Amino acid sequence: MGFNSGLDMERSYYAATASPAPHHAPLIGEVDADLVVVGGGCTGLSAALHAAERGLKVVLLEGGRIGWGASGRNGGQMIVGLRKGPLELVALYGRERAKALFDLAFSAWGLVLEMIERHAIDCDLRKTGHLVCAVSDGDAAWFEREVECLATVMDYPHARMLSATDALDAVASPYKGAFFDALGGHMHPLNYTLGLARAAVEAGVTIHEGTPALRLDRRGGIRVETPQGAVRARHAVLAGDALLAGIDKRVESRIMPIGNYIVATEPLADAAEIIPSNAAVSDSRFVVNYYRLSADGRLLFGGGERYTPRPPADIQAFVRPHMEQTFPQLKGRRIDYAWGGLVSVTTSRFPHVGRDGEVYFAHGYSGMGVILSTLAGKLLVEAMSGETSRFALFEGLNPMPFPGGSALRGPLYVLGMLWYAMRDRLKH
Q: Which ranges form a coiled coil (predicted)?
């Protein structure tokens, strides 16, 4: 599991409040399947579920426990779209292709809501909107243009600009204004992931936890080796994101694992005064602060600059200054939970979705994976079944590999991030 085992998932708010879930036995021996899925997060589970619903025999391998990667660690913010906003999409691809990409990304929102309803997943869903708060006047002006582009080019009328005064009514921290998307929201991501796993098992998927994939052999068909067995299959899905650990170096070269860290305060009697809107909130800094309220009135706050997967020695001490800078009124409040999560980013910040023969993959959501991952898993199965039109849209994004190969991509990336962070501090 590598870095994944050192990020205190067992001490997370999500693990403490997780729905009951069965443990799945490790794989022992060799088995045959139509599809082998590597990774028990939302991408892999969505692919497994949708494949099983099409009649495929599916075996899913998870190196640790279901949902204990990025899918069950993250901020739980449901954000419509891609990491690049509508103006950048139009500048990069023109109006027609930009709208097609936005529409496809938007469909993830509807898919996740459908999954929650159809499979009765109890995950503290709150459809209260998403705020991106401007820390500079320039960011506020940019947001106004984004709202206009969404309405006129993307035919998306659900976003609006908030003044500084209106933003303060929505979240009790001073900003220059805010971009509000009424269709955003938040949820308990681990319980959502566990709900997908339950649905997958009910559809016939066999899940093996504690079963890391050690080697992918394509000679004479697909064979995935594990410590005590192997799976032979016609198709494979690689859905390990930042935790693929050497399974496919070409795929892994497109992503960079980055650590982010979250704390959960004690239950707050004044929670409704901290975020009166109960929206999911992030800000416009290059190193983003993001936060929301939990179902039991805690502030879940993620933030801080960390450009390598190695966690800080004390996650609580690392995040607290960023929380108290945003909300001085919470200075000294007790923090009950502190944990970390690896997310993967790509050079373009677009997801890396594609195939190599009968090996399909999707990862690199760059902070947008809460709902995009479920869609990506479904797109892989569509492509596997010969329905390639939606898959091809994301496949065409194809981020470039990180420069420097396996030895230098980390140090080069850190240098680049430090430069952007310095520019961010000078700007604000």
A: none
Q: Which amino acid is at 426?
A: L
Q: Give the SS3 label for residue 382.
A: helix
Nearest-5° Cα angle at 189, 186 to 193:
140
Given a contact cutoff of 8 angstroms between Cβ atoms, the answer to whether 56 and 258 are in contact is: no
Model-level pTM?
A: 0.93
pLDDT tens-digit map of 60-108: 999 999 999 899 999 999 999 999 999 999 999 999 999 999 999 999 9
Those residues whose C-beta lies under 8 Å from the C-beta of residue 220, and which sit 6 or more positions away, are none
Structure tokens at 16: 């403490």
For the chain, give percent helix, strand, coil, nearest 5: 40, 20, 40
User: How far is CA 115 from each of CA 203, 278, 338, 385, rounded to the nearest angstrom?
Assistant: 13, 23, 29, 21
* Position 283 pLDDT exceeds 60: yes
List the Cα angle 225/228/233 in 5-degree steps. 35
Distance CA 217, CA 232 (A): 9
Q: What does residue 215 show for φ and ψ, rounded to 5 degrees?
A: -160, 140
Tokens, residue 29 = 């021996």
DSSP 27: P
In contact, 43 and 242? CB cutoff 8 Å = no
Extract the runs of DSSP E, i.e. beta strands, from 105-153: 130-133
What single letter denotes the amino acid at residue 389? S
- Domains of the chain, first to last: 2-74+190-254+348-416 (3.50.50.60), 124-185+257-345 (3.30.9.10)
